[in-house]
Amino acid sequence: GVGFVGLAGSVSVIEVESTTEAHLSESNVNAAQDVRVLANSGTALDAFAGVIAGGAAGLGASISVPSITNTTTARMTGAVSNGGRTTEVRASSSETITVTLGTAGLGLLGVAGSIGVASINCTTNALINAGSRNSQVNQNPAYASSIQDVTVTATDVAGMATNVGSVAGGA
Asked: Cβ neighbours of residue 156 under 8 Å, at least 6 residues apart?
């Protein structure tokens, strides 16, 4: 805003909420090679807000509030599976938020402020559990081999970067 009293404001609110699921439920699965249940999710947010206010009095404010709330799940429930090589249940997720804010208030009286509040609240699960029956993995000797393996993993990587600045100038 520009004028005798220059007022300017900028607000950025971004919310991302998602659910990613991979299930093998109440099934019989036999494979000469691999049995895999994989869930993967990724979210990247870039939030920008900024203003310049000038006049006899320049008053500026910028606010950014980005958030990510994700649930990522891979599971075998009440399943009977036999894999000749690898039986894998894996959930992986990644989240990144980058906040860039800039505010300037210029005039005889200059006031400027920038506020950034970012949040990442995610749940990542990998599991083998019972349903209407107990899950059984690699119990059939017809599929047994020296390289048979079972892995259950859940990983989550989150990161935030902020670039926030305010400048106020007056006489």
From this structure: 72, 92, 93, 94, 95, 122, 124
